[in-house]
Amino acid sequence: MTAFDWIIALILIASIVLGLLRGLVAEVFSLGSWIVAFIAAKLGASAVAPLLPMDVDSEGMRNIVGFVVVFLGVMIIVMLFGRVVRGAVGAVGLGGADKAVGGVFGLLRGLVILVGLTLVAGLTVLPQTDFWKNALSSGVLERLATEAMPLLPAKVAEHIHFNG
Description:
By secondary structure, the chain is mainly alpha-helical. It has one domain. It has 6 helices and no strands. Helix 1 packs across helix 2, helix 1 packs across helix 3 (about 95-120) and helix 3 crosses helix 5. It is flat. It starts with a helix and ends in a 7-residue tail after the last helix.
């Protein structure tokens, strides 16, 4: 195993352990809170901006602050709701199952992160280096990234290369 492979293993192990420690409910609410908060902030920033007690004439600055306020507010609400659900899951005796499935979620999250990093690496010369070519895991990551490329905009995907 090369240093590249150890880095890959470390990322996967860290993600799995985090999933095991936090459990599926916490992981889903953590991820969901970011998504819901972003969508809510995008949709609600312009409605909240005029209500802010600010002496700023710049509409852009008011919208930025509105975005941040809505984003943080929704994040807090969703995360608090997640804590309630997590407590309920533990109270009915499903804490162990929650943690185990959280580990599977962690594995999947780790793979998604690694595929994303592999796609970014494909935009550089890194896949042509010995550091990359000598790694045991680079071939698997390249195959997974190649499968994910249709999800990218065509203008981006056309610049991703793994074979010289």
